[in-house]
Amino acid sequence: MGPMGMKRYLCLLFACLSIFGCIPAQAAASDFGDQAAEIAEPRATGKFDFEIPAKTLMESSTSFPMEYGETVTITASYSPASASVDFGLIDSDGVFYPVRGSNGSINQTIRIDLRGTYTFAVRNNSSYKVSVSGFVNY
């Protein structure tokens, strides 16, 4: 190999070393960032927007497993604001754990006291149809 060939080889070698030398540091920083984001963020978010008839309990078609101490946050609004509306969770035994909205909205976090499978539900206690929309984070 002549002097030009050796020079090219060394440049290529240093370029490869510097590229590969940076990857593990970036991956480590990225992995740490992803783990921090997973801890800080809820496991899932469900959006809802529907009308619920008078004196009706409506529940989600999907359920989700929850562990002791985990939380579910419900942020929603409903109209008319004078309606009596409960938002909450139904456990695997069919027991509804409601939280009452007030003045047309709710922003409430429910802490899970018993490990199990839960379903999000909304109950209209009023004698008229109510429009509800919002998010449930679990």
Give the biggest beta sheet. Answer: 4 strands, antiparallel
Strand arrangement in the largest pleated sheet: 1-8-3-6
Strand content: over 45%
Q: N-to-C terminal Cα separation, in Å?
A: 64 Å
| Average predicted local confidence, pLDDT | 78
CATH architecture of the largest domain: Sandwich
* Secondary-structure class: alpha+beta
Q: In total, how many domains does the architecture comprise?
A: 2
The CATH superfamily of the largest domain bears the name GOLD domain
C-alpha Rg (nearest Å): 26 Å
Which percent range fits the helix content? 25-40%
Gross geometry: globular
Number of helices: 1
Number of strands: 8
> Are there runs of 5+ residues with pLDDT below 50, and where?
4-42
Look at the structure and give the CATH class of the largest domain.
Mainly Beta
List keywords for this structure.
2 domains, four-stranded antiparallel beta sheet, alpha+beta, 8 strands, 1 helix, 138 residues, Jelly Rolls
How is this structure best summarized?
By secondary structure, this protein is an alpha+beta fold. It is built from one helix and eight strands, in the order αββββββββ.
Topology:
Layout: H1 3-40, E1 45-52, E2 56-66, E3 71-79, E4 85-90, E5 96-100, E6 105-111, E7 116-124, E8 130-137
Antiparallel strand pairs: 1-8, 2-7, 3-6, 3-8, 4-5, 4-7
Descriptive report:
Helices cover 28% and strands 46% of the residues. With 138 residues, the protein is α+β, with helices and mostly antiparallel strands. It has two domains: 1-41; 45-137, GOLD domain (Jelly Rolls, Sandwich). The strands form two sheets. The protein has a four-stranded antiparallel β-sheet with strand order 1-8-3-6, with no helix packed on it. Strand 4 (85-90) and strand 5 (96-100) form a beta hairpin. The longest helix is centred in the N-terminal third of the chain and has 38 residues, at 3-40. The protein is globular.
